Automatic annotation (TrEMBL):
Name of the protein: Phosphatidylserine decarboxylase proenzyme
Gene behind this protein: psd
Pyruvic acid (Ser), modified sites: S209
GO molecular function: phosphatidylserine decarboxylase activity
Pathway(s) it belongs to: Phospholipid metabolism; phosphatidylethanolamine biosynthesis; phosphatidylethanolamine from CDP-diacylglycerol: step 2/2
Source species taxonomy: Bacteria, Pseudomonadati, Pseudomonadota, Alphaproteobacteria, Sphingomonadales
Subcellular location: Cell membrane
GO cellular component, one term: plasma membrane
Entry's transmembrane regions: 30-63
Active site: S209 (schiff-base intermediate with substrate)
EC code: 4.1.1.65
Catalyzed reaction equations: a 1,2-diacyl-sn-glycero-3-phospho-L-serine + H(+) = a 1,2-diacyl-sn-glycero-3-phosphoethanolamine + CO2
This protein's UniProt keywords: Cell membrane, Decarboxylase, Lipid biosynthesis, Lipid metabolism, Lyase, Membrane, Phospholipid biosynthesis, Phospholipid metabolism, Pyruvate, Transmembrane, Transmembrane helix, Zymogen
UniProt modification remark: Is synthesized initially as an inactive proenzyme. Formation of the active enzyme involves a self-maturation process in which the active site pyruvoyl group is generated from an internal serine residue via an autocatalytic post-translational modification. Two non-identical subunits are generated from the proenzyme in this reaction, and the pyruvate is formed at the N-terminus of the alpha chain, which is derived from the carboxyl end of the proenzyme.
Family: Belongs to the phosphatidylserine decarboxylase family. PSD-A subfamily.
């Protein structure tokens, strides 16, 4: 993946900068800004126009797409989303990620695995990233409802998109982008057959949503329920490592 090489020994060159706005969101921000200026200058409605200006700023902020420092270690599975770890539970992977889809590539094996659910509020960055590097083996879109993405049933009832990535050594990770109450569109940036680097952008979900990650059997999460994670940076787990991690809410 292109970018500056940095490490934990002080190697690299970084500086603070305003996060760029993803192209997918620029048109929405400009429309909101244009309406606000029309109301302010065209109609002279100061109160409403000011409120619409704040809304335009919020739209631009929602589609921000900051750079991330992505760990380059094949043992690590990084978070595909910014947000709050809202659920950690044992489940069967989705049927769409298991069944033979005729592509000649096996899906995830059957049997319970750990699912880590990350809830994204409207204040989080909504650009999603690849948890591992490898080839996109499946991209399955399923229409559905728009119930609260924080609920467990959202994994099976809401509009969603399953993605399966396979590394060169055969290790696979499946994860699911789930639309929520406000989110009404899942926008993919990749397609089956694409080669991805770990932390590479794979898509976004507009205006509040959730991402479920299915860890391989024998792999425990390195995050806690209630923890805030950062896409492309926070390590969710290490392949094959099982270790209980406890925390204290304070």
């Amino acid at each position: 993946m292109a970018g500056n090489l940095i490490d934990n020994q002080g190697k690299g060159d970084v500086s603070w900068s305003w996060p760029p706005i993803h192209p997918e969101g620029r048109k929405y921000g400009l429309i909101a800004l244009g309406v606000a200026l029309l109301v302010l200058w065209g109609f002279g409605w100061t109160f409403i126009g000011t409120a619409l200006l704040f809304l335009a700023v919020g739209v631009f902020a929602f589609f921000r797409d900051p750079e991330r420092s992505v760990p380059q270690d094949e043992r690590m599975i990084v978070s595909p989303a910014d947000g709050l770890v809202s659920l950690i539970t044992e489940v069967e992977p989705p049927r769409e990620l298991q069944i033979d889809d005729g592509s000649g590539t096996a899906g995830l094996p059957s049997g319970p695995v750990t699912r880590v659910s990350i809830f994204m509020s409207v204040f989080d960055v909504h650009v999603n990233r690849a948890p591992i590097g490898g080839s996109v083996r499946r991209l399955v879109y399923i229409p559905g409802k728009f119930v609260n993405a924080d609920l467990d049933k959202a994994s099976e009832e809401n509009e969603r998109q399953h993605i399966l990535i396979e590394r060169s050594d055969g290790q696979k990770i499946g994860f699911t982008q789930i639309a929520g109450l406000v989110a009404r569109r899942i926008v993919p940036f990749v397609k089956p057959g694409d080669m991805l680097g770990v932390g590479q952008r794979v898509g976004l979900i507009r205006f509040g949503s959730r991402v479920d990650v299915y860890l391989p059997a024998g792999t425990s999460p390195k995050v806690l329920l209630g923890q805030t994670v950062v896409a492309g940076e926070t390590v969710l787990a290490e392949f094959g490592e099982q270790r209980l991690i406890e925390g204290i809410a304070q």
